[in-house]
Amino acid sequence: MVATKKVENAQDLRARCRSNDLQPSWYVHSEDGLSKKCWLSVDEMRLVLSRFDAIESGRQQWSGSRLAPTKVLHMFWAPPSGKLSAKCEIPSYGKLGMSSALKCGYDVHLWTFSNLVGVPSGVLLRKASDLVPLEDASKWVKKGGLRVQHLSDIVRLRAVRQHALEANAGSWMADMDVIWLRPLEITPSASGHVFASMHARVDKMAWKTDEEAARYWKLHWLRKYDEKIWLGCPWAFPVGSPVLEGALAKLDEVIESGNFNLSYRFLIALVQDLIHAFGLGVDVVDPDIFHAIPHFSGGWIFRGGELGEVRGVLVTQLPEVMIQSVAIAQSWMSTETVGAMGPVNVRFGGVHSHLAR
């Protein structure tokens, strides 16, 4: 009798998933031509179904849009050497990213422990030690094994919170190598959040088998079911953001425990869970919404229409080698490229990219 009840529960959950346009099953095809049908477990289906009410509640609570947060962008830089207080020069891709944000009208706050060289004019240098004592940060990185990228997350999130306390206004956290082509004026919903995304390719996720990859995306969609997207940067947080406070609380727990052995996806996965908890999927947008080129390795610029409709072309990775000199970045920034309405051809270190906007 107990076994029958379990089957009935599973079938009921599968029916509920389908009624919400989520297929709880999928096929995996082997090289020998055989097919295997896979299913979400009962617990997995309950997890997904628990999010539906949160999504609907979020839609009702935050319907409509509003003006974006104040144009304050919080960035962070530390020397590649790992010595946080060492003197170093900003790489050319960072100069390009910050200059593009300035040209789009943003106030760029660059937080650092270092003596930086080559900071673009107009960028406001801020002392990261005002948010995290240098002694603590150095200990976390050198002895604790904290990744510099997670130190950057801690500093930038604390900067957003401090700005909210001081100015009673929201702000952004951004990466230095994001190129801004146009400012975002309106948020997707009245919650005041904005979370940029990048479109993921399951076949590039070598740490997952086909079955695991399909299962992963059925559980980790952000806006609609089976949608293969991953959070990128920048993010915008309004005053009193529950996502911001939830992320900071979890990071404080990590600091208190001293266990800094974190996956590089730690913060992204954490914020993704918080987005689900508060029904904020509507605030996850394609990078092209505000015309920023994200820093992930090779990606498409998506423009409007249904998901997957490509109206741009492939934009290659933008590490130092792609922009071979500061002169190239400066030359590009001196043109009408940033903020322009039409398509622009740009050459990065001999690699030609067409930025269709």
Structural overview:
This protein has 357 residues and is of the alpha/beta class. It folds into 2 domains: 2-48, no CATH class; 72-293, Alpha-Beta Complex (Spore Coat Polysaccharide Biosynthesis Protein SpsA, Chain A), CATH 3.90.550. 35% of the residues lie in helices and 21% in strands. It has helices at 2-19, 42-61, 92-103, 134-142, 148-167, 210-220, 242-257, 266-277, 326-333, and strands spanning 25-29, 35-39, 72-77, 87-89, 107-112, 115-117, 124-127, 171-173, 179-180, 194-199, 229-237, 284-285, 292-293, 299-302, 310-315, 344-348, 351-355. Strands 7-5-3-8-11-10-12 form a 7-stranded mixed sheet, with helices on both faces. Strands 1-2 form a two-stranded antiparallel ribbon. Helix 7 packs across helix 8 (266-277). It starts with a helix and ends with a strand.
